[in-house]
């Protein structure tokens, strides 16, 4: 079959000869891929990796990492199911994939006599998205969606109605689930009159707009230097702010002017992930506000003064990936009309065939990042 394989730093290869994956375990589901998004994590693996691909084999799947197919933002159609797959999953269903690969997968891969054998502490208490051995389908765990087919464990498969979520945008359920998990972590639904600030208008920042709408939050400001992304956010009905219009000293003051009584935002989401945005998150919160780090950083320190938190009783939290529940809630938000698929469709900047996915997809996104929000690859 066609596939884009990862072999190491700056070493991606398109092939037409990768074997079509087959059902091996009773909980396996074989999926024909219809669309796969290119994520920033894919670009980091190419430019700076191996990161998730570090090591020769995955300790849970025992699969070689070199030569795995990239791609964890995907949708497709079920082609075949194993003998123990849940009756709710049927051939012909349109599905998305929760791409986490964790200790809990050992159970489905029939590698455990005792379900608690060799399970990390996070997985043991149900926080499997914080698994100490976490990799992802398409990022070191097993083959991903930049291929014609993939096989995944049934617990990671979530059906959707293509009449509600068109196949052309369904792969965006994955980044929407990242944003949804971050918004859930912030407990924004407990605030009677939330005012939200999103720092960074990349794909996750823009998806956070929809996650907030799904939580019935509509007073939203997006801070983003790129004019095209601010214009896109404005088309979603949010106010925007250009941090480059102000020096560091004036930026926070101008942001506060956009809040009720200048008191600050009840919730701030850092979707950029650097020292400057972390500082802006802390400084722009109102008393009792909640700041949530959704961006995944390398080991970069920030300046944090505990009295900034104490004086205003601030809460600083963080969000790691997602769980299956987040996918289900995103799909329900579409079904309930809280997320508009036509608006979400504006996030897809370009579609390319799998055979052109490296040059016209991954490389184009690396060299012309400002032109695009999301590029889809399809077989």
Count of structural domains:
2
Specify the structural class: alpha/beta
Write out the CATH superfamily name of the largest domain: Medium-chain alcohol dehydrogenases, catalytic domain
Give the total of beta strands: 19
CATH topology-level fold name of the largest domain: Quinone Oxidoreductase, Chain A, domain 1
Rg over alpha carbons: 21 Å
Query: With helices defined by DSSP (H or I, 4 residues minimum), what is the helix count?
Result: 12
Helix content: 25-40%
N-to-C span: 10 Å
Weakly predicted, low-confidence segments: none
Q: How would the global form be characterised?
A: globular
Give me a quick take on this structure.
This is Putative diacetyl reductase [(R)-acetoin forming] 2. By secondary structure, this protein is of the alpha/beta class. It contains twelve helices and 19 strands.
